[in-house]
Write a structure and sequence with these properties.
single chain, 616 residues, mainly beta, 11-stranded mixed sheet, 2% helix, globular, binds 2-acetamido-2-deoxy-beta-D-glucopyranose, Peptide-N4-(N-acetyl-beta-glucosaminyl)asparagine amidase A, PNGaseA_N, PNGase_A, signal
Length: 616
């Protein structure tokens, strides 16, 4: 199973240049966009600046560092838990290691815990999806980079502090990694992997400490909503079609007073490029038997048959996607650290605290084979009461509204798809924090405009997903906790095929995507406010020269601007690459703002504010 199996319209060519064609050329049949695609990782390098270089290329995803580089920072206590060479691992059991909190750390209190995944590879290989779980709790969903003859190296560093309660347990737990790789005479790339945990000692100066309160940053308990070992596969559930529904039965401790479901999702094979899938009426009219169901997808989460929330996912492009040259060495947004999505389910606790098991279910609207989904249930537990009670006050589910308009003649057409959904739930929970009414609301909107021209050889996708989450918790009509998140995911792709002479064509792809999120969290009990704003935009232009169905050359350029300002840190990076070479890389980590101090009022009347968050 790979991250990248091309879809309908991203027909794939066999990438081979200066290699023997005999064994592989016959795998590749056609370059029609509407035939089931063949696929392969790139077998050639773009115009090399310097061919003689033997050092491996370092790939990376642009992201703020999990630990800001502060002069006061103390070095972490680090622990390598796993080394494994992922050769032929496809459909084999996940690789396991015993995880125990390292005994050599001077402190048992940590301000940050960082997971580092390192890998090297050499040869030819597809991009492979992988997952990493601790006792079934997913800590990382990621995609490998495609190696080259000279070798590549990359690492992913992820702040996993929110999984604190499971990471510091005083017992042996099982770390599992599933990375389904295939090795044969052609695909030679073995992934040599190290998994390391870094524990940063607790410091008094840490802004976001783990002090208890209604909304402490880390949950007291995390329950896995994933498949259980032993398995010959990943621990995620596989959603194969739109009627498929996978679930797990869980028992929730009776003293839980807050619950957040964190959902991990990735899409593959026929739905890897779901946002470019064409409507079925068009496919039927043209007698095409390829991935369809249109371009709209949503993950729906239900508990005991009732919808509790949804995820409208960011369209992650894996490292072999669209034109692999675009992602070397700057990988696509989210490809090395796929985003997870939180759904507040506190309003439903009233029906879940009975000590019985409850079904947490996943489905995907319009799904085609295959979606990998699982979740972690983060629970905050009452330290004083053994039994917390509650009542679900309101569930309002505006059913999903989708509209789609197709205008086409033959293989040319215009297609517009729009969708909206809102989900609101209100529930009462009576814990030692008081009688708290939580109101959770999700608002989604979606628009996708597609143009197909030149008898199907040109396609434009212009898509925008917006997702807003609002959580308000009140005690006796006084707000005690409030959380807001507004996300927007613009995505644009222009792809064209230009016929040249001598059975040659130029395959052009221009892509632009953004991951933008504004967040704020306010805990009036702890007098704390956290704010952040992320704007992360990537643009790429690539060309592949295809002759007799084989890529003979190609090039690609990528520009990215990453801008994060938050109560915790600021991070700005403006970077570009072309043909494997970094053209410029500008980095700023100092917050350009008047003040980032939180005003701590002694009088409880005063609302903490974050002042002067200005970045220019
Ligand atoms: C290739 O390497 C040589 C020698 O190190 C250097 O002079 C030249 O500028 C390099 N070429 C490119 C395109 O980077
Ligand atoms: C984990 O520890 C147990 C008990 O010591 C041992 O039997 C098992 O083989 C270990 N598992 C791994 C994956 O190292
Ligand atoms: C961890 O557990 C062991 C045995 O269960 C116990 O002896 C030890 O004191 C515990 N350590 C901590 C830090 O709780
Ligand atoms: C549709 O495609 C199938 C398979 O390629 C072919 O056998 C059939 O004749 C086609 N039908 C029409 C109406 O073109
Ligand atoms: C698609 O839209 C364009 C611009 O509005 C129009 O010129 C073209 O005729 C449309 N194509 C089809 C097949 O409807
Ligand atoms: C066309 O392709 C063939 C085979 O690759 C090559 O021998 C020939 O020189 C090419 N002709 C032109 C005009 O590029
Ligand atoms: C694609 O990108 C290239 C290079 O930046 C640009 O020249 C071209 O106009 C772009 N085409 C479209 C349709 O965006
Ligand atoms: C990024 O750098 C490029 C090249 O110097 C410049 O043209 C562009 O304006 C910069 N973008 C931002 C947002 O600073
Ligand atoms: C990348 O390669 C293409 C094709 O050789 C070339 O046109 C382009 O200028 C190269 N980019 C850079 C920055 O050298």
């Amino acid at each position: 199973m790979t991250c990248s199996l091309p879809p309908v319209i991203f027909f794939t060519i066999f990438f081979i240049a200066h290699h023997s064609l005999s064994t592989v050329a016959d795998l590749h049949q056609t370059r029609s966009r509407f035939k089931p695609p063949q696929f392969s990782p790139l077998f050639f390098s773009p115009p090399p600046q310097n061919v003689t270089t033997t050092s491996p290329t370092r790939y990376f995803e642009v992201n703020k560092p999990p630990v800001p580089d502060l002069p006061t920072s103390q070095p972490p206590c680090s622990y390598r838990i796993l080394h494994h060479d992922f050769g032929y691992t496809y459909a084999k059991p996940p690789v396991l290691a015993n995880y125990t909190l390292p005994s050599h750390c001077s402190s048992r209190e940590f301000s940050k815990i960082v997971l580092e995944f390192q890998s090297t590879s050499k040869g030819r290989q597809f991009d492979r999806i992988f997952g990493l779980w601790l006792n079934g709790v997913e800590l990382l969903r990621s995609c490998t980079a495609e190696p080259k003859a000279n070798g590549i190296v990359w690492s992913v560093e992820k702040d996993v502090t929110k999984y604190h309660s499971i990471l510091v347990k005083n017992e042996t737990q099982i770390l599992s990694v599933y990375l389904g790789n295939l090795i044969d005479k052609i695909y030679t790339g073995v992934y040599h992997v190290d998994v390391i945990f870094h524990f940063y000692p607790f410091q008094r100066t840490n802004l976001r400490d783990s002090s208890s309160g209604y909304s402490s940053a880390q949950a007291d308990m995390i329950l896995p909503i994933s498949r259980s070992l032993p398995l010959n596969d990943g621990l995620w559930f596989e959603i194969l079609n739109q009627n498929d529904c996978k679930y797990k039965e869980v028992e929730i401790p009776r003293n839980a007073y807050r619950a957040v479901l964190e959902v991990y999702v990735s899409f593959h094979e026929n739905d890897e490029f779901w946002y470019g899938n064409l409507p079925n009426d068009f496919l039927t009219a043209n007698n095409l038997s390829v991935a369809g169901n249109g371009p709209f997808r949503e993950v729906v989460v239900s508990i005991d048959g009732k919808v509790v929330g949804a995820v409208w996912p960011f369209p992650v492009v894996f490292t072999g996607g669209i034109n692999p040259l675009l992602w070397r060495p700057i990988s696509a947004i989210g490809s090395f650290d796929l985003p997870s999505y939180d759904i507040e389910i506190t309003p439903f606790l009233g029906s879940l605290l009975d000590g019985k098991t409850h079904k947490v279910e996943f489905s995907v609207t319009n799904a085609l084979n295959v979606w990998y989904i699982d979740a972690n249930l983060h629970l905050w537990l009452d330290q004083e009461k053994e039994i917390v009670e509650g009542k679900v006050l309101e569930i309002s589910k505006s059913s999903l509204a989708i509209s789609s308009v197709s205008e086409f003649k033959g293989l040319n057409g215009n297609f517009t798809t729009k969708a909206k959904r809102s989900i609101t739930s209100i529930g009462l929970v009576k814990s030692s924090h008081g009688d708290i009414i939580t109101n959770a609301n999700q608002e989604f909107s979606y628009e996708n405009k597609m143009v197909l021209g030149k008898d199907g050889s040109m396609q434009i996708i212009d898509q925008l997903i917006q997702a807003d989450d609002r959580i308000h918790a009140k005690r006796a009509s006084r707000e005690i906790y409030c959380e807001k998140s507004s996300k927007s995911f613009p995505f644009y792709l222009y792809s064209d095929s230009l016929e040249q002479r001598n059975h040659t064509s130029l395959e052009i792809a221009n892509v632009s995507m953004g991951f933008n999120e504004e967040r704020s969290e306010r805990d009036n009990g702890l007098m704390k406010t956290f704010k952040s704003k992320l704007e992360n935009k990537q643009e790429g232009q690539g060309v592949m020269v295809v002759k007799d169905h084989l890529v003979t050359s190609g090039y690609g350029s990528t520009q990215q601007v990453y801008k994060y300002i938050g109560s915790d840190q600021c991070y700005f990076r403006n970077i570009s690459s072309s043909n494997y070479t970094i053209l410029y890389d500008k980095l700023e980590t100092v917050c350009k703002k008047k003040t980032l101090k939180l005003r701590h009022g002694s009088a409880s009347k005063q609302t903490p504010t974050l002042t002067g968050l200005i970045y220019d």
